[in-house]
């Protein structure tokens, strides 16, 4: 292939990829890379990707062939592809499925499971590996015998050895439960799954395939992941345990299930700090599952995984799955598992555990694709960089690492910028969200808007949400509860005052607050306020990765022209 200067991609021999932004093919190249590459960084002009084993195996599990991966690289590469990269992609892809985990045949001498392969030397290599050998033994009927209780652990170990196993051992049925989806919801509106939601359910279920029934569906916030979960419940038709992030999400799941299916209220239970109802569909929080009296005590509520005859476990926001739940999940591999998320990225780097214990990625659709199809709103993302005032700068200079981040996050100049941004969007439904309650209280007083925080009573929260929906309170200030408050009303503008270090997970959730389609065709605006020349700016660059991965242009502007002349940063209220 000759040198092609018009192409935007440089593929390097260490499996890193450089994508030059701005050319006519840059967007198409980004879309082609996203299924099998990870974005590492995304400054203004050149974005860096990398090809990893997990990224290739997730793409392989979703049906992408090695030839298609190589063809995408060849199509956009400026230079000849390094031969070792082509070989690595093909070799990594070929590793997926070389090992199979199957149930021991009826009548065999040993019970449990078998690791099988057409490559006897590979089986010998696996049997000798220190991570695996204590959990396997030679089987008289061929392959390696694995005890049922080691099903999850051996899958984890094999991924770490570089040999992802296809789990074909099947699942227990679980207790039967008819989950019939309504054609018309109680309000009288017609209801049906969208086309991509049907596709996601079908990819998870994989009718007739021994690989169906476990895996992860990746969809944007606002695209209806809960509806995909309901669709999977209807397809499986078994008792279901739903795990989610907080009590608000539990309430939303319960409301959606009763509104959109023919399940009755006494069939859907909540298992939280407020109630312990175990019913055919039970919705629990990760917090209650990881509760224990002291760090050395056993987890109080892990028995929930075995207290009912579950046929399906749904992990909502699977990228937030706590480490202890991974451990118990390793022991329930015979139960069907569905993970729902807007991003497979985990801040703790445990994407391999999601892959091995919940299942590989089964379905993914880019945010920009759904935007073009009108299912989510168009969004414009802007980072506003603001200087620290001299007093805050002095406090920043002498603080420790965590203290510096907080000083930068609570930069008083952000309140002036907030006032200016609200003036740019008069009357538009606007959410103001942040990390620190002191800052949020100051912001709420400054702009004369109500504040919703974790301690806000449920009745008061519902009243404020209703006021916001009706336009009587066009601006609402929310704490971190807004990251996962699934009943938070639709907004068209979001101003992020501060966040959790460089969390791309949080960026996904917050962007999702404004992505629901607007009835008037209006787009969404997402503003992030960042203190210039501070550690907050470094963390913002990491958070920016998520927006770039989804194909959003990310504009960076300074304070010039944004803060009105004469603004002082005091706490006087405005109308």
Summarize the structure.
The chain is an alpha/beta fold. Helices cover 35% and strands 18% of the residues. Helix 6 packs across helix 12.
Structure description:
The chain is α/β, with parallel strands linked by helices and about 575 residues long. The chain folds into four domains: about 90 residues, no CATH class; about 70 residues, no CATH class; about 170 residues, P-loop containing nucleotide triphosphate hydrolases (Rossmann fold, 3-Layer(aba) Sandwich), CATH 3.40.50.300; about 190 residues, Rossmann fold (3-Layer(aba) Sandwich). Helix content is about 35%, strand content about 20%. It is built from 20 helices and 23 strands. The strands form four sheets. It has a seven-stranded parallel sheet, with helices on both faces. Helix 2 crosses helix 4 and helix 6 crosses helix 12. The longest helix is centred in the C-terminal third of the chain and has 15 residues. The N and C termini lie far apart (about 65 Å).
Work out the helix count: 20
Low-confidence stretches: 563-575
How many separate domains? 4
Note the beta-strand portion.
15-25%
Helix content: 25-40%
What's the architecture of the largest domain, going by CATH?
Answer: 3-Layer(aba) Sandwich
- Which structural category fits the helices and strands? alpha/beta
For the biggest sheet, the summary is:
7 strands, parallel
Radius of gyration, CA atoms, in whole angstroms: 25 Å
Strand order across the largest sheet: 12-13-11-14-15-10-16
What distance lies between the first and last C-alpha atoms, to the nearest angstrom?
A: 64 Å
- Count of individual beta strands: 23
Described by its quaternary structure, the protein is single chain
Mean pLDDT score, rounded? Answer: 87
Instruction: Name the CATH class of the largest domain.
Output: Alpha Beta
Topology-level CATH name of the largest domain:
Rossmann fold
Silhouette: globular
Name the CATH homologous superfamily of the largest domain.
P-loop containing nucleotide triphosphate hydrolases
């Amino acid at each position: 292939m000759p040198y092609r200067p018009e192409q935007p991609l440089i593929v390097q021999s260490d499996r890193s990829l450089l994508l030059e932004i701005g050319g006519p093919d840059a967007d198409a190249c980004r879309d082609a890379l996203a299924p099998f590459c990870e974005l590492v960084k995304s400054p203004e002009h050149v974005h860096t990707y990398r090809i990893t084993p997990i990224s290739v195996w997730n793409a392989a599990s979703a049906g992408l062939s090695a030839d298609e991966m190589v063809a995408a690289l060849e199509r956009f590469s400026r230079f000849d592809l390094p031969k070792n990269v082509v070989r690595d992609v093909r070799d990594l892809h070929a590793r997926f499925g070389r090992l199979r985990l199957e149930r021991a045949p009826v009548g065999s001498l040993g019970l449990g499971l078998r690791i099988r392969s057409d490559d006897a030397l590979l089986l010998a290599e696996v049997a000798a590996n220190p991570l695996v050998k204590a959990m396997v033994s030679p089987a008289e009927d061929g392959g390696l015998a694995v005890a049922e209780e080691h099903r999850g652990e051996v899958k984890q170990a094999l991924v770490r050895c570089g040999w992802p196993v296809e789990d074909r051992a099947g699942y227990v049925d679980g207790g039967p439960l008819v989950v019939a989806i309504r054609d018309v919801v109680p309000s009288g509106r017609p209801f049906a799954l969208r086309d991509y939601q049907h596709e996601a359910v079908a990819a998870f279920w994989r009718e007739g395939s021994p690989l169906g029934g476990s895996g992860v569906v990746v969809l944007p916030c606002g695209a209806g992941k809960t509806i995909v979960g309901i669709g999977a419940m209807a397809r499986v038709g078994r008792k279901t345990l739903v795990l989610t992030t907080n009590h608000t999400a539990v309430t939303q799941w319960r409301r959606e299930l009763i509104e959109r299916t023919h399940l009755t209220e006494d069939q859907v239970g909540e298992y939280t700090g407020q109630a312990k109802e175990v019913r055919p569909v039970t919705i629990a929080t990760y917090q209650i599952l990881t509760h224990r009296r002291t760090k050395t005590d056993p987890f109080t509520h892990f028995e929930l995984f075995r207290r009912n005859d579950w046929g399906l476990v749904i992990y909502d926001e699977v990228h937030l799955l706590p480490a202890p739940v991974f451990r118990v999940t390793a022991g329930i591999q015979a139960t069907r598992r569905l993970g729902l998320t807007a991003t497979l990225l985990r801040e703790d780097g445990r994407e391999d555990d999601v892959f091995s214990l919940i299942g590989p990625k089964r379905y993914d659709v880019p945010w920009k694709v759904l935007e073009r199809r009108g299912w989510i709103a168009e969004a414009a993302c802007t980072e506003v960089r603001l200087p620290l005032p001299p007093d805050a700068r002095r406090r920043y200079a002498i603080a420790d690492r965590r203290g510096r981040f907080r000083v930068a996050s609570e930069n008083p100049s952000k309140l002036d910028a907030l006032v200016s941004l609200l003036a740019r969007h008069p009357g538009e439904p606007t959410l103001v969200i942040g990390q620190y309650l002191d800052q949020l209280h100051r912001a709420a007083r400054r702009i004369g808007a109500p504040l919703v925080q974790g301690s806000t009573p449920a009745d008061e929260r519902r009243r404020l949400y209703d006021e916001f929906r009706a336009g009587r309170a066009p601006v609402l200030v929310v704490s971190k509860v807004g990251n996962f408050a699934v009943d938070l009303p639709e907004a068209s503008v979001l101003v992020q005052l501060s966040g959790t270090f460089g969390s791309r997970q949080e960026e996904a959730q917050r962007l999702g607050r404004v992505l629901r389609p607007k009835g008037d065709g209006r787009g969404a605006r997402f503003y992030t306020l960042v203190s210039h020349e501070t550690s907050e700016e470094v963390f913002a660059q990491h958070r920016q990765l998520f927006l770039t991965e989804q194909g959003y242009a990310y504009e960076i502007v300074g304070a010039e022209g944004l803060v009105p002349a004469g603004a002082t940063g005091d706490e006087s209220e405005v109308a």
